[in-house]
Amino acid sequence: MSNHTPYVDMMRRSVELPHAEHWVMRSRVGQRRYRIIVAQPMGPAPPSGYPVIYLLDGNSVFHTMVETLRLQCHRPDKTGILPAVVVGIGYETEGQYAPNRFYDYTPYPNMKFKNKLDGGSVPEQGGAAEFLQFIEEELKPQIEGEFNIDRRRQTIFGHSLGGLFTLYAMFAKPQAFSCYIAGSPSIHWNQEYLQELEQRFVERVKEEPYPVRLLLGAGEFERSHVTGNCISASQLAERLALQSGYGMHAEFKEFEGEGHLSVLPVLISRALWFALHPQV
Questions:
Q1: Are 170 and 180 in contact (CB under 8 A)?
Q2: What is the mean pLDDT of residues 249-258?
Q3: CB 33 within 8 A of CB 25
Q4: Between residues 120 and 146, which one has the greater pLDDT?
Q5: Which residues are the active-site residues?
């Protein structure tokens, strides 16, 4: 046996995501602070510009989405996935989630759900309109000033309360994005209000047809959850699919063997194909 001891460099270094950076933006309305995390595409921009994905809860899933995208767009001939700019919208915290999301992601305060599962009180709610205004009027111009962006291929991805906001954004301003990804959306949080927005949305697209793509996803194990969000999401996709003649494309995907959190990696992979496949 060899007595050779392998050399180990004991200087430990932090692991960083290459070609990515973050900064803080303060919204004009409300002076709310956001950590913006952006990954540059690993490939040249097409003549029309890069597609862009705006990712909610950027603190928790930004790295997962970026690495999944880079792995797949490395061989677009095999995967069909094209390079894109990924913009994570997060908060100034080292945790995965921040209480601020309750305000930013909910269109209307809910008086029924006053306590979280951990027993703490639910933070302030009802700021979705302000948050959408920040994305449209402040964040998008910033990103478009730094990258060659194809405005016809803009996606927003949200999960849980982020999925609720994604649906709100689509109903309130369908032209904001061409593709909407709502994972395990918390429809129960503002269910009645969301139904009102859905009715207005359907009336609008019938009068002014506009190409909108929606992917709703949830884990198989969410089907038995007391909120019924998995079933509500499936039924929503069925209703909206009836508007296909007006440019609406809606589909629901239930992921076998997955729960509310474990569904995220597989949903991200499916979302990338849904949003970035060149034939879409």
A1: yes
A2: 96
A3: yes
A4: 146
A5: 160, 222, 260
Pull the structure tokens for residue 239. Answer: 């209703």
Do residues 100 and 109 make contact, with C-beta atoms less than 8 angstroms apart? Answer: no
Task: Read off the DSSP letter of residue 46.
Answer: P
Is 233:164 a contact under the CB 8 Å cutoff? Answer: no
- Tell me: pLDDT of 119 over 60: no
Locate all alpha helices (DSSP H) within 183-279, ordered by sequence: 191-207, 229-241, 263-276
Give the residue among 228, 225, 174, 230 at the shortest CA–CA distance from 198: 174
How far apart (Å, rounded) are the C-alpha atoms in residues 49 and 261? 33
Q: For the segment 210-230, what is each residue's pLDDT rounded down to a tens digit?
A: 899 999 999 999 998 988 899
Token readout for 262 is 């474990």
Three-class secondary structure of residue 2 per DSSP: coil
Check pLDDT > 80 for residue 114.
no
Q: How many CA atoms lie within 13 A of 1 on its CB side?
A: 2
Measured CA to CA, the distance from residue 87 to residue 237 in angstroms comes to 26
Q: How many CB atoms lie within 10 A of CB 87?
A: 24
Question: Can you say how many angstroms the Cα of residue 230 is from the centroid of all Cα atoms in its chain?
Answer: 17
The whole-number pLDDT of residue 112 equals: 78
The torsion region of residue 247 among left (phi > 0), alpha (psi -120 to 50) and beta comes to: left
Quote the CA–CA distance of 81 and 101 in Å, as a whole number.
Answer: 30
Rg (CA), the chain: 20
Nearest alpha carbon to residue 34 among 86, 103, 106, 91: 91
| CB proximity list for 154: less than 8 A, separation 6 or greater | 51, 52, 54, 140, 176, 177, 178, 179
What domains are there in the chain, each with its CATH number?
A: 20-276 (3.40.50.1820)
Q: How far is CA 159 from the centre of its chain?
A: 6
